[in-house]
Amino acid sequence: MRLRKLIAGCLTLSLMSVALVGCGSKNNTSDDTLSNETTEKTETAEAEKVSLTVWGPQEDQAAIGDYKDGILKAMCDKFNEAHPEWDITFEYGVCSEGDAKDVVTKDVAAAADVYMFANDQIPILEQSGALAELGGKTVENIEANNEESIINSVKYKDGYYGVPFTSNTWFMYYDKSKFDENEVKSLDTMMAKDLGDGVTNFAFPLDNSWYISSFYYAAGGTLFGDGTDASKGCTFDDDNCKAMTSYLVDLAANPKFSCEKEGSSIGKFKEGTLGAYCSGSWDADPIKKALGDNFACTNIPTVTVNGKEGQMKSFVGSKAIGVNPNCKNPQVAVALADYLGGQECQQIRFDTRQIIPTNTTVAQSAAVLSNEVAQAQTAEISNASMVQPLLQEMNSYWTPAETMGKEIVQGDVTKENAAEKTELMTKGILQSN
């Protein structure tokens, strides 16, 4: 622990004295100063030789467009060129963001110096000594270039542990030949519409705990306060949330509803037998192909329970770049993480892989503004989301919530026992408290 604190302190001090390369800030005074200082340094001293190991997903290392060796290598090469004070040799490894906590924690000392991860893994990675707290210019860049929800997604124990480069949430796709843009604002309106025999109005992965919480948020329930205070507990067992469970019992039994199973909704879109479906940007391409000119997407709808209309809210997180506190060159590693999560690299990811940016400047570019999926995800984050709690107590949420969804779908939860089942779910969520 002492070593990790020492390294975090060194990172902060280093970054206070050295301006990191921030994409798109070439006209910034601090960058001009850095450029002059760098020129003077390289005239009097040889570049410092540095070795860095970088891990990223396979998709970033595969040939795409003009990037024959993948975008990760190209981005790292650009960083190296921008820093003549360092002569960096890169080694690359394949590790997806979702697998980071399992792969990195197997042998933290031997893991990559810089790697990508999903933000909900921060508590495990930090406690395993695998994730350095960031400081200085890097934190300034995070706070200056992202929306509040994205900023909070990498904040843990009042510190920052990653540079976010894309958001991670879900929203709603719909067939605009079946619903117009006003009808999709309310789930009750959507479910009341007659779309004809054999047509499902709304598909939703109700048995998935990452999704079902959206309904209890719509009922006014809270999960650890704003998601940062475990002492606030969970209010998913209040009267409105109990009524929401009863609502979900009716929804699951409605022939116009289906619980999404392994991409079945995409096939229904293609057949013309589905009105709307909730998922994330990863399903955009196949849904576009399935719906063609009828493709549309937006943030998730409202739901009315006990006479009160409430906005459904999805969990929102991010994918981020992190630094291993065991790295031999922390100053260079943090600078690279800041660059890989910055404006220029987010633009490259969007242009090549349609990875939706969090950087507010890239998000306002013409290409992103004209992209329906990017705009739907942006609207979701702004209007209909809650930051997924980064607390140890959150570990107790997933199984009870999943169980509730599965039991609703298979008919074990009824209107008669809905209140009791809701209390049981909430008790399970709070077991670690």
UniProtKB/TrEMBL annotation:
SUPFAM superfamilies: Periplasmic binding protein-like II. GO terms for molecular function: maltose binding. GO terms for cellular component: ATP-binding cassette (ABC) transporter complex, substrate-binding subunit-containing. The keyword Signal applies. GO terms for biological process: maltodextrin transmembrane transport; maltose transport. Residues 1-21 form the signal peptide. PROSITE patterns: PROKAR_LIPOPROTEIN (PS51257). Keywords: Signal, Transport. CDD domains: PBP2_oligosaccharide_1. Belongs to the bacterial solute-binding protein 1 family. This is Carbohydrate ABC transporter substrate-binding protein, CUT1 family (TC 3.A.1.1.-). It comes from [Clostridium] polysaccharolyticum. The lineage of its organism: Bacteria, Bacillati, Bacillota, Clostridia, Lachnospirales.
